[in-house]
Amino acid sequence: MSETIPAVATARGRRQSTAFLPLYVLAYFGSALAVTSAATVAIPLRLSTLDPAGKTQLLSLTVGIGGVVVMLVTAPLGRLSDVSTSRFGARRPFILGGAVVGACGMLVLAAAADVPVVVAGWALTQAGFAATTMGLQALLADAIPARIRARVSALFGLATGIAPFVGGMLIGALPGNPLWWFGVPAVVALGTDLAVVLVLRDEVRTERVAVGWRSLARSYWINPVRHPDFAWAWACRLLVTMSLVTVSLYLLYFLTDRLGIATEDAARASGTVLAAYFAGSVVTAFVFGWLSDRTGKRKLIVWTSTLFTAGGLLVSLFAQGLPVFVLGIALAGMGQGAFVAVDMAMLTEVLPPTSAAGAGLAVIALSYQLPQLLVPALATLLLAIGDAGPNYFALFLGSVAAAVLGALAVLPVRSVR
Questions:
Q1: Is residue 415 part of a domain?
Q2: To bridge 192 with a disulfide, which of 27, 61, 229, 242 should be the other Cys (CB 3.0-4.6 Å)?
C-alpha cells in the first residue's frame, strides 16, 4: 500500500484552549530540565565519583551513546506519530509514553553503581525523552499559527535556557544523593508532560496508513539538492548547537579543572554560570522574537546572533577566573536568545511542504541531536592535544569555530529574509 501523509500546511490540530500554550511551554521546560540537568550536572558528578581519573572520556562515551540512541529513534517515531490512529490522538501517546520511559531511565541512573549501568540508564532516558520532545515539537507545526511561531519559539528557547540553570541550582540545593539528583527532575518532567496531555485537543486520525521499513528509513532524509534552503538552515542549527553543547557538556569539568573551583562547589558555580546565560538570553529572546514576527526577518537575526554568540564564547575562552567566564557566557546567552527565538521559526518555514509535521520536525531534531554524538567524539580529540592534561583551550576554540561556521551557513538561504 502506498503511503500518503498529510502535508504540514494542512496538518493543523484543533483549536486549543487558553490553558494549552502555557502548559505546552511548561512541558517543554520539564523535559528539558530532566535531560539537561542529568547531562550537564548529575551525570558528570556521578562519573567524578565512580572514576575521577577517566571522567572526561567516560562522559564523552556516555553522551555519545545517548546521542546515537536519540538519532535512531526520533525520526521513525516522528513518522509513526504522523500516521498514528490511536484513539488517544497522534501526539499524546508519544509525549506521555516517552516521559514515562525517560523517567524510568532517570531511576536507573540514580541507582547505578558502575559506569555500564550509567550508560544504559542514559540511553533509556534519551530514548524516552526523544519521543516526548518529538511530540511536543510536532505540535509547533500542528497547533501554532505561523504569525506567532517565532514568539512561541522564543518561549521554547527561554524554557531551554532556564532548564540547565534551574537544574544546576536544584541539584546544588538537594541532598548529595543521586536519587534526589535524578528523581526530582524526573518527577517534574512527568508532571508537566501529563498536564499538557490532559488539555491538548489532539488530532485523532481514522485512516490507516501502512508504514514499512523503507518508509521509516526515509524519515531521516530530506533531499538537500532539491531543498537547499532547508539544508543550509539545518547545517546552521547543527553547527551552532555543536558550539553550545561543547560548552555545556564540559562546563562542570572546566570549572573544576581549569578555573580551580572545588568539586563540592561546582554544581552551585555551574548554576551561577547558567544563570548568567539565562539572564543574557531572556531579553533578546522576547525582543527579537517579537521583532522577527513583526518584520518577517529571520535570516538576518539568525546570522548576527550567531556571530554574537561566537564573540561571547571567545571571551570565555581567555577567562582566567569565574567573573570573566560568567561575562563571556552572558554575552553568548544574549546571542543565543535571539537565535533560538528565530531559528526554529525559520526552519519550519523552509521545511519542504511535502513533509509531514512529525517526520519533518524529526529531521530538524537531528540538527540538535547529532551534536550529542559528534561533540563527544571531537571533544575527545581536542582534549587530548598536548601533554598537560585535558586541553580545555582547544575545546573552547573548537566551540568558537563551530559558531562562526554556523553563521556562515545561513547566508546561502534565499527564501527567507
A1: no
A2: 27
Contact indicator for 350, 230 with CB cutoff of 8 Å: yes
Would 390 be classed as within a structural domain?
Answer: yes
Q: What's this model's pTM, rounded to 2 decimal places?
A: 0.69
User: Domain count of the chain?
Assistant: 1
Q: Which residue range is the domain that position 170 belongs to?
A: 8-409
Position with higher pLDDT, 90 vs 326: 326
Q: Report pLDDT digits (tens) over 24-45.
A: 889 999 999 999 889 888 999 8
State the cell numbers at 151.
Answer: 514568539
